[in-house]
Design a protein that fits this description.
heterodimer, A: about 100 residues, 4-stranded antiparallel beta sheet, 4 helices, 4 strands, globular, B: alpha+beta, 2 domains, 10-stranded mixed beta sheet, 7-stranded antiparallel beta sheet, 13 helices, 20 strands, about 30% helix
Chain lengths: ~100, ~450
Amino acid sequence: MKFKMKALGTLVKNIRSKNAGPYWVTIDVFCKNKKSFAEISNKLNIDLLSRAFKIKKNKIKTFQIHNLNVLKISFPRSLVQGHMEDRDMHGAQYSLILSEMNI
Amino acid sequence: MQNTKVLVPSGVLGLGFDNNAFENGLKLSPDIISIDGGSTDSGPFSLGTGTSKYSRSSIKSEWKTLMIGRAKLNIPLIIGSCGTCGTNNMVDWMEEITIEIATELNQKLKIAKLYCEISKKELKKKFKNKQIYQLDPPVLLNEDKIDRMAHIVALAGAEQIQNALKTDADIILAGRTTDTAIISALPLMKGANLGSSWHGAKVAECGALCSTDPTSGVVMIEFDKNGFIVFPTSKNAKCTPYTVSAHMLYENSDPFKLYEPGGYMDVSEATYKALDYKKVIVTGAKWFKDKNYFVKLEGAQISGYQTSSLILIRDKKYVNNIEKWTSKLKKFLCKEINKRMSLSLKDYNLQFRHIGKNATLGDLENKKNELTEVGVLCIVTANKHDISIEITKLINPFLLHYPLSDNEELPTFAFPFSPVHADRGALYEFSLNHKLKLKDPMSIFTIKLNEI
């Protein structure tokens, strides 16, 4: 049987992103349960994240918070918050890149 | 020891909170009311200009409610990062508002002001003495750059706030502080658990965001020598182990560690338990003291002057070829700017953003939907104010009429405003991601008292 690709946003409780100080963005992926947490953590590997956010692999930090089934992804913003070419001061729209991604 | 109860009315003054929840909180006899007044969330403008992003009327009306509550119980009321950015003039601005309210309410007060701004001269001295250390990601620092900074603040921690508390002031108006220090200072002073004082402060720093009803605002947090208990004071809201532990992740790049002046806390072994239907008890956070005492620095400087124009395009041919149109237009404009003003692209920055297509995510956008219309946001940034406006005016007729191909009637697009351009004035940028080593935590901070 073939599995259909689904948007990540439909498979999790919530995905949010936020500036963490002027130089960092952090994304929290709240998974529904242990099993889906393990699967999603596996799928959202550094290679995929690096491509999706156009950030060098060695700049991306990921954290697994097991008691909450949360995967946290943090990376330095490519442009400091408020830079003349910055588009999103709070970085809150970055989460959509993951929630709309088919996995 | 007795426990220490801190009432946090909201994540920030100016955002609003549920007055009934605040009254409920007062009935529980808190030892202090602590509220944050700022953040860097909205960008560098506030620090660059030394202004508040919230309206004076919002600040005054909420601060009045807090001052009335404080006077009822005769406990201290503290605000950190006055006027969004915590510059010295914003501490004075908050004092002016406080005096106005005190006069209206006929209150007698002792006010302590904690000033956190550093002069360029002082910062250069620290830079020469190698007291300034880079944080990650590295940001260039040199003396020229320090000369260009508009305001520089150091983030005060628990030590500086404790010194303000020791003056027995009724109200403490603090310049830039860490979000947490205004909550942790008193429990730490009274001997509460080190790690848990910081952990509880982090959980409560956004008010009821750690509960099921974030808009209710108010949380109470009780610290003792083992840990802390947190709960919202609104009737309908509750804290659960999930809402409390999840808040530790919020706007933190590391979910387990939080750096503060003097050390860091580690919550990787913390445990969260429901005490009843709305209270959560938390233990197990650890505090690791640094060998040296560091405070984080923030600075902002002018990076140019900006003018923006917005045009609306509904014509299908142009909507479908919007990238092609703006890239052709940009080439043409650069030539015209060079011809008429003798400026090249290194003298200014010209951007077109396509609202409706990818203005939010830029080259990270991967959706390609059919568009009905596009807003073209044209942004000019130059190092001089008059040049930025002059370029924008030069561009204006072409934004209105520039054709996609040579052999067609001149199009006319929609301008929603007259004048079409908005002079955005100075553009600021953050210019420090550094920490400063101090022998004496108070050395760059000043406390002033005022009895009214």
